[in-house]
Write a structure and sequence with these properties.
Length: 470
């Protein structure tokens, strides 16, 4: 059974639908008002934890996931239908990270319990129809917006084990042996320390109850400081609801082993020592293991471990193991559900930040490439989105765009940097314009008509449209 599993997938939320330009046509009403409806919002992309899944193998077969876009608005103020959200089912315990995130950035989401869901990509806003542009000055607006683009990103999925019980202890104590006895798991068992390098999961079915055990690789002094794979292992402990602490009865100093592990837990996260713990004094089939048993028991009792949580067992022969597991189950059942969830390590991220809407039009940067054909690139979250949502089919939309370029100070900045008639201006990646020094409305309209006649219609996404700007 593999505990670690990773996959990389592409997700794309639905684009918003286009707004519509329409006017009411009614009998006896010669000049109806604007009635073009807004486009529908695009669908979002979510991940949701599905308890029927236990691996990420499905993501080897399908890599691209897209939510349904919003529909365009219609006449008579009809709003376009909203896109449909896409729910990507993943096994509980899946962590989602942005592919481009730095190593220290927190994950986008983590779904732990069945039904947990998290929003990964937000659908684009529906473009406004011309009815939305009506004002006291503009009674018959001849423009509408394109829908906003749905978020898209590559994300890495990582499956982390979510075990009820973590089996901890010093190297070679018999943790893997115990796991193999309580479950059908077949972890590697060997007579040397650090046999286990990756936690093994085992499902224990007993008394009609299912308990998932994880065999945590041997903890050693300094683990909390990252010695060995310390941090990794301790992080796994955090997600377990209870711990079984295995002591090696044949060790020269079982009490020292016990306190060393407890110290590591406490140093890493004081909550870890407060997790319910059942202690298994192991290897009691070995004759001289009984030397320290009474002493260890006294020590544990004196340190607050309840008597019914201390067992002398032999993982090798199975002695007392059933009683140990029953006690573990009892401890789990005694925990309130809420506490179980609180200690499961969930980050409780349900929604990544929405598309930032506080970006301002006057926050932009200009890059110039004057080596070949002269190209100026304008970058800025707000202006780029505005350009994408401008429907260049409408003259008034183009006019509105030009005004925003003015008000935001972009035209002024371009002029100051020495832009020349005929230079290309890119806004973001997709929108290509041509600079004209004559900025009068007449020149703009003429240029728009010329382009419209040449193209019939301006292709969306690659709007090539001369004489804007200035
Ligand atoms: N006699 C006896 N030997 C045991 C018992 N349990 C485990 N062993 C032996 O102890 C050695 C270590 O067992 P593992 O289960 O690999 O120990 P571990 O704690 O998983 O060790 P690491 O993964 O290296 O941390 C093996 O040789 C086992 O056969 C037991 O109850 N009695
Ligand atoms: Mg092991």
């Amino acid at each position: 059974m593999r505990c670690f599993d990773t996959s990389r997938i592409y997700i794309k939320a639905g684009d918003g639908g286009k707004g519509c330009v329409a006017f009411r046509r009614e009998k006896f009403v010669p000049k109806g008002g604007p009635s073009g409806g807004n486009g529908g919002d695009g669908g979002n992309v979510w991940v949701v934890a599905d308890p029927n899944l236990n691996s990420l193998s499905a993501f080897r077969r399908q890599v691209h996931y897209r939510a349904i876009p919003g529909q365009p608005g219609g006449g008579s103020n009809r709003t376009g239908a909203e896109g449909t959200d896409l729910f990507i089912a993943v096994p509980p315990g899946t962590i989602v990270r942005d592919r481009d995130a730095g190593p220290d950035e927190p994950p986008l989401a983590e779904v732990v319990k069945a039904g947990d869901k998290a929003l990964l990509a937000v659908g684009g806003r529906g473009g406004r129809g011309n009815a939305s542009f009506k004002s006291s000055r503009t009674k018959a607006p001849q423009l509408a917006e394109n829908g906003g683009p749905g978020q898209e990103r590559w994300v890495d999925l990582e499956l982390r084990l979510v075990a009820d019980v973590g089996i901890i202890g010093v190297p070679n104590a018999g943790k893997s042996t115990l796991l193999s006895v309580v479950s059908a798991a077949k972890p590697k068992v060997a007579d040397y320390p650090f046999t286990t390098l990756v936690p093994n999961l085992g499902v224990c079915e007993m008394d009609f109850r299912t308990t998932v055990f994880a065999d945590i690789p041997g903890l050693l002094e300094g683990a909390h400081a990252g010695v060995g794979l310390g941090h990794e292992f301790l992080r796994h402990c955090q997600r377990c609801r209870a711990l079984v602490h295995v002591l090696d009865g044949t060790s020269p100093d079982p009490i020292g082993d016990y306190t060393a592990i407890q110290t590591e837990l406490e140093l890493f996260n004081p909550d870890l020592v407060n997790k319910p713990q059942v202690v298994a004094y192991n290897k009691v089939d070995v004759p001289d293991s009984s030397d320290y048993w009474e002493e260890v028991r006294e020590y544990l009792l004196a340190n607050g471990v309840p008597a019914d949580c201390i067992y002398a067992v032999s993982a090798a022969t199975g002695r007392n193991v059933i009683d140990l597991v029953r006690q573990v189950r009892k401890v789990l059942d005694a925990m309130p559900e809420d506490e179980a969830a609180a200690t499961s390590g969930a980050l409780n991220i349900t929604e990544p930040p929405r598309r930032r809407s506080d970006a301002r039009m006057d926050q932009f940067a200009i890059e110039a490439d004057l080596s070949g054909p002269r190209v100026w690139t304008v970058r800025g979250e707000a202006i780029e989105r505005f350009a994408q949502m401008t429907n260049w089919d409408y003259y008034e939309a183009a006019l509105r765009f030009q005004k925003v370029m003015d008000v935001a100070g972009i035209n002024k900045a371009l002029r100051a940097k020495g832009i020349l008639e005929g230079d290309t201006v890119l806004v973001g990646e997709d929108i290509e314009l041509e600079w004209a020094d004559d900025q009068s409305e007449g020149a703009l309209f003429e240029a728009w008509m010329t382009e419209r006649k040449a193209k019939g219609r301006v292709a969306q996404g690659s709007a090539r449209w001369p004489h804007i700007g200035g």
